[in-house]
Amino acid sequence: MKNLLLLISPQAKSAYFNDYIDVAKAELCWLIGGQEVEHRRMGEMDFLAVASCDVSLQQLARLSFIYGIFEQDGDKLLPLSAESEFSLHENFVFGSKFKGKTNELLTQMLINVGLKSIDYRNVSELKLLDPMCGRATTLLWAMRYGIKAKGIEQDVKAIADVRMNIKKWCKVQRQKHSFKEGFIGKANKHDKGKFIDFDAADSSMRMINGDSTEANTLLKNEKFDLLVSDLPYGVQHFTTDKTRDPISVLKDCVEAWSKSLKINGVIVLSFNRYLPRREKLIGVFESEGFSALDFSAEHRMSESIVRDVVILRKLY
Ligand SMILES: C[S@@+](CC[C@H](N)C(=O)[O-])C[C@H]1O[C@@H](n2cnc3c(N)ncnc32)[C@H](O)[C@@H]1O
């Protein structure tokens, strides 16, 4: 490939605020493996320039910040036809807005850097788990990629909300699909273990109501290639024990999460850098056989939250 200019989407500015150039660079560098990347500004447009790379246009088009890809020819820019070709309509991920939703582009970035960190032949072979899935943003993104996904969420109202949102977009987009509902274990009036399955566009997701510390029971010891989650921030989302510090809940979850992951699989987490501190978070996982990879994508989210991303590989 020749010299490429990647146009950064205006949406990335709201996802990553003032740090959007650095976050976009971090994601691109992770994908292309440390090649030099340069920021260029033309008028109001921000581009990342790369000399040449082995990565396909389709892969580049799936970067979370991409708005367009151009080949540079002297002082002219030639737009390249780079389709991201997702199987499920974007409305399934972007269409519904709700309190506590993880930014859609951030979620895509988490999946992208996770995929780059594992070995696989075809995404359709992969299984992704979001052990704190909220209202399924990660699960639906995974389905768009053709990855089978499962999620666990403690909020009892979440399954009904997800069902309603998905039904709406199936209707609007005339998406062929199937739903199944049931319980892991015995049905009960607290809806503990209740699940919903959604199958569409050659992929599927299951969302289970329950506590992530019980992941192995809820998932019947199934093993996943990737765990991707946006951790509770302590401000908007309380953790199970109503403390603001997610570290205590992570300590309770780490064994179950580790058992749910294949060896050499990775966990990708976004978290509020102030709570927990990066080193403390990594420490919890190191004691369970994980090693942190050299990736970070720090960016301010609000006055009280600076979000970061960590990738942890399961060594044994
Ligand atoms: C930042 S939100 C995730 C939002 C999600 N990515 C989305 O877009 O809907 C974190 C979620 O973790 C959930 N959570 C916290 N502790 C949990 C636990 N022990 N088991 C299951 N879910 C938990 C919270 O209820 C919250 O919905």
CATH architecture of the largest domain: 3-Layer(aba) Sandwich
- SSE string, helix = H, strand = E? EHHEEHEEHHEHEHEEEHEHEHEEE
Quick one: CATH class of the largest domain? Alpha Beta
Helix content: 25-40%
Query: What ligands does this structure carry?
Result: S-adenosylmethionine
Distance between the termini: 38 Å
Percent range for β-strand residues: 25-35%
* Radius of gyration based on Cα positions: 19 Å
Q: What number of structural domains do the residues give? A: 2
Key descriptive features of the protein:
316 residues; alpha+beta; Rossmann fold; ten-stranded mixed β-sheet; five-stranded antiparallel β-sheet; 15 strands; globular; binds S-adenosylmethionine
Describe this structure in words.
- InterPro entries: SAM-dependent_MTases_sf (IPR029063).
- With 316 residues, the chain is α+β, with helices and mostly antiparallel strands.
- It folds into 2 domains: 4-79; 91-314, Vaccinia Virus protein VP39 (Rossmann fold, 3-Layer(aba) Sandwich).
- It is built from 10 helices and 15 strands.
- The chain has helices spanning 10-16, 20-32, 57-61, 91-95, 104-116, 137-145, 158-173, 215-218, 246-259, 278-286; strands at 4-8, 37-42, 45-50, 66-73, 76-79, 127-130, 148-153, 177-183, 194-200, 203-209, 224-230, 261-272, 290-292, 299-300, 306-314.
- Strands 6, 7, 8, 9, 10, 11, 12, 13, 14 and 15 form a 10-stranded mixed β-sheet that branches.
- Strand 4 and strand 5 form a beta hairpin.
- The longest helix has 16 residues, at 158-173.
- It is globular.
- The model has no long low-confidence stretch (mean pLDDT 94).
- The structure holds S-adenosylmethionine.
- S-adenosylmethionine is lined by residues 100-102, 132-135, 137-138, 152-155, 211-213, 230, 232, 237, 239-240, 249.
